[in-house]
Amino acid sequence: MRQLSADVQASKAGPGQFDMSGDGVRCERVGLTYPTRPPLRALDDVNFHIEPGQFVSLIGPSGCGKSTLLRIVAGILPATQGAVTIDGATPFEAREQRRFGFVFQDAVLLPWRSVRQNVELLGEIVNLPKAERTRRAGELLELVGLAGFGQLRPSELSGGMRQRVAIARALALDPRILLMDEPFAALDEFQRETLNVELLRIWTERRSIVMFVTHNIEEAIFLSDRVLVMTPPPGRIASVVDVDLPRPRDLQLRSEPEFLRLRRTLRDLLIR
Amino acid sequence: MISSSASERPAVQSSRNPDAAAASRGFRALLSDQWLRWVVVIGILVLWQIGTVVFEIPKFLIPSPIVIGQALWTYRAMLLTNTIPTVEEAAAGFILGNLIAVVLATWFVHVRTARQALYPLAIVIQSIPMVALAPVFVVAMGTGFSSKVAMTTLISFFPTLVNATRGLDAVERPLIELFQSVNASRRDIYVKLRFPNALPYIFLGLRVTATSSVIGAIIAEWVGAQEGLGFMVINSTYEFNAPMLWATLVVSSALVLCVFALVAVVERFVVPWQASAEMATGGKR
User: Fold this and answer.
1) Which of A11, A162, B198, B271 would give a disulfide with A107, using CB separation of 3.0 to 4.6 Å?
2) What is the ipTM metric for this complex?
3) What CATH fold (topology level) applies to the domain B64-280?
């Protein structure tokens, strides 16, 4: 226990200096079969490798196992075939070392806690000292653009702001891997665009691996270094599309020829 | 730093204003409701008074409100000394029953087999009419304090068990996964997530059992006791003292209302996030 919280503190790198060591996320022949009758194959022979600091999107029709794959990487759901390694460790070990940050489609903030207390939640769970928790929460609220909103209750915020709080909460333990499960799917188009830009800004300040599940092609291209295209069940990775667009990116990018070309490529892959 | 985009900022204000509007609308509605209620209550009392005078109903059958009021004053000392044991019996059973319910619900949520084994049993116990159980307890445990507490405990137990179990269960799955993703213990998940989440549900149980524990105590006293409001009901019936009987009824229902109000006030303090959510939706219960 003591060793774990020491680990959390050790992984705290100052802004600007990123820990790019390690192997990243490696999925080798990962499959998941539910023992129903007949057996239900949710995932089949999934292979990929994400290097440290990469932003990767998983895209595919609903029900293709994108979210399931995210949970296998997080060590919440065990794979029935193959192996996932996180910097050489198993997902379960990585979870014990608190390497994951999780953002879901709904912000799922705790309504009895203020915005600030929600951001401090994970720090409480891993027994960070109070002063450290407060400091981190302050920094993170500023990072996500909610510096003055710490005392409000989640019910007083808009959907987009709640999702910002959820992002701040996910970053509270300085995760090596940020897992985002359709985080902006419930927002309207304007909020989604705003948060796409904000997420890239946050990511350049707090560099980590991001695995971003979405079913929005433009969002996937705009954000990612690479897009993994998944097929309907049993889910497997049909193709990998590298996005070689320069960073930093802004919304203008989406009318560039290269962006449009990638969009067409992805659409063809998904519709096929 | 630009703290928030233009597209999001108005949302805060607009989400606040309807809240305030709903709150004041709710308050006004409450006021007019209150007003209507008092008109009805006073109207009934006046009609009752007129009826007893016009039809010359003898006060040993149905006493008029004024006679009941006089009885309340005449028997005030006796009513007070008999209210205390009823309150004690109800409170002891209320606390004990709810405590057992919350502990058992906690066990149920963590140990599936415990729930499967005991939940049906709890439903069977609940299906026994409480009025029929009162004599059982009095015969088994005597006419003293303990048989009353057994009764009120049993009455307080079930509604809270059901609600607490539901509340502890009704946690959104992503939240559990969030806790798991940082390797939180089951204890953390319980203390920081399940229990606070269950509080509004538990209070639903507390509201119900607060009133029914008073009623349970009175029923148990009815069957056999040396003191208490239920004892006074029986006694005044035997003595054909209708004004005293009615005065006891008035005190009993006043007691139930007080207990209910007390729980509602405590709830506002303990579960403020729920109270504000209720206000915003105009009260969903």
Assistant:
1) A162
2) 0.88
3) MetI-like fold (1.10.3720)
